[in-house]
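Submission checklist for the structure archive. All mandatory fields must be present; incomplete records are returned to the submitter.

[x] Identifier: TIGR03915 family putative DNA repair protein
[x] Organism: Pontibacter populi
[x] Residue count: 258
[x] Sequence attached
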Amino acid sequence: MHLYTYDGTFEGLLTVVFEAYERKAWPTAIEQEQVAQPGIFGATIAVVTDEEKSQRVWKGLQQRLSVTAQKQLYYTYLWEQPGFELVIFNYIKLAFGTSENIEGNFTAPCVLQVQQAAKQLHREKHRMEAFVRFQKTTDELYYAHIEPDFNVLPVVIDHFTKRYADQRWAIYDTRRRYGAYYDLDTTTFITLDAVPRKGMGVLPEAAITQQEKTYQQLWQVYFDHVNIPERKNPKLHLRHIPKRYWKYLSEKQPRLQA
């Protein structure tokens, strides 16, 4: 039995693949070093991320997988559900073990798992792009927080960079404690010393402009007027806007007073 540990990065996980092939010792488990629990039986192999080794693995995959499959593999990494590392390893091992295209081989559990994980992350990505709401602060920064089930921030920043290219903004993932900041030129990942509060009231009252408060109130008034009680369909509404996303939406917050 072999437990491999790594630093939690995608490059680190690819380095694990390289090390496993070099040692000819297949992992029975792969865990991030900060949460790994070494077992009584078997060996624990701590892998240090190596850019050259990870690139060699990735280049090998580029020769065997389509661009779509490469994206699905990365999405599975961002999926972050228990055991995702071993799913990725088994997929890569299968790809390296044959000259045939494995992407449609759904009899292999890892292939089906990768496709399902990628679909779930893709769905969460689009919901974040649709439901994220920015609040304008007194220092002219548009701020939003997210709390997604999966680590979608790396794949949504391109959308927001293109859509809001003319304004400074920041999106912070309160669950994973990191964010993205756009300064009108480049988008960079950031961390904050203090974790922001959750919910629409994430920013202190004094940090929000009066104009922002007015916009939120106008939107709530508009929503109330276009909402037709006789046509309410709660089941359909929940299907399109699941309740866990309501915390991002102005129209779902307590009504602001003029």
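[x] Structure attached
Curator remark: The chain is about 45% helix and 15% strand. The mean pLDDT is 85.
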